[in-house]
Design a protein that fits this description.
Largest sheet: 6 strands, antiparallel
Number of helices: 9
CATH topology of the largest domain: Pdz3 Domain
CATH superfamily of the largest domain: PDZ domain
Structural class: alpha+beta
Protein name: PDZ domain-containing protein
Oligomer: single chain
Strand content: 15-25%
Radius of gyration: 20 Å
Number of domains: 2
Length: about 290
């Protein structure tokens, strides 16, 4: 199985899956690669939601060989629905007992071969990453327990920011300091391979920051604690979708108010989903990265 890009429309890039490739079928890997490299923020968000579904199923012991064979577009939405159904089941233990299959242990020769294959795969991925760097904030989806976001126990706080309209922003580290008044700083990379991505495969550090839009407002995660950190949320992540809907220019205060309304009306122990970093700069960076020849 290849680790990087095959011919157009048949690509798999294991670097996009955040270590979850073991829990996905090859068709799912191929289709999520297509979504992640489409340049379309809604498709990138769908891929992030699907990978959360894969993670939840794998935690319940439900691996690809335990699922019916499903293909292409329907598989992504089926994955999401299947993960939600699994979560509604009584316990993860019951799920894994129903799904359990007996797999014979590999002998020492097979283990050595598997180990060598894994080493070679990781080496190829590392070499590919040297010439095809990923954005510093990759798209991801998290599900958190719903509560009043104005209370101190809420795991996240938010702040307003402005995207400068460039693809370079996807490769610029965001730092946030201060308590009441937030100070946001960006560290622009000087990595030559990043400029190669921005410039469509041409090595030219004078190509600029690849401006693609006018500046626009966005919401950042300003602080993280408790459940937020354990689910992989990081300070500086860009909040792009709430419960499947794009924020669309919503300010931080408006997001807090929306979450507060949900907390007041939804039943106890309910959850909410955030998609992070499925924004235009990251989507375009992933698209340009995918177009570069090896």
């Amino acid at each position: 199985k290849k680790d990087t890009f095959e011919e157009n429309g048949n690509r798999i890039d294991l670097n996009l899956f955040r270590g979850l490739d073991f829990a996905m079928t090859e068709d799912e890997q191929r289709y999520i690669t297509q979504l992640m490299t489409s340049g379309d923020v809604s498709k990138v968000a769908t891929a992030a939601e699907a990978m959360l579904g894969v993670l939840e199923l794998s935690r319940r012991g439900k691996m690809p060989h335990m699922r019916p064979t499903i293909s292409k577009r329907s598989s992504i939405y089926q994955l999401i629905e299947e993960s939600q159904q699994a979560k509604r089941s009584d316990t993860a233990k019951q799920t894994s007992q129903v799904s359990r299959v007996v797999i014979s242990s590999p002998n020492s020769r097979q283990r050595r071969a598997q180990h060598r294959a894994m080493e070679m795969s990781l080496l190829r991925q590392a070499e590919y990453m040297k010439t095809h760097p990923l954005p510093v904030r990759m798209p991801k989806c998290v599900e958190l327990t719903l509560s009043d976001p104005t209370e101190t126990k809420f795991p996240l706080t938010f702040c307003d920011d402005t995207w400068d309209g460039t693809v370079m922003d996807a490769y610029s580290k965001i730092s946030i300091s201060g308590s009441k008044k937030k100070k946001i700083t960006r560290k622009r990379t000087e990595n030559k391979t990043v400029f190669r991505v921005l410039n469509g495969g041409i090595n030219d550090t004078n190509c600029g920051d690849a401006r693609i839009e006018e500046p626009r407002s966005r919401v950042l995660v300003a602080s993280v604690k408790n459940e937020g950190g354990s689910k992989g949320v990081m300070k500086g992540d860009v909040v792009t979708h709430l419960n499947g809907e794009e924020l669309g220019g919503m300010a931080a205060a408006e997001l807090v108010e929306e979450l507060r309304k949900h907390a007041m009306t939804d039943c106890a122990n309910s959850t909410f989903r955030l998609v992070l970093n499925a924004e235009l700069s990251t989507a375009e960076a992933l698209r340009r990265r995918a177009m570069i020849e090896d």
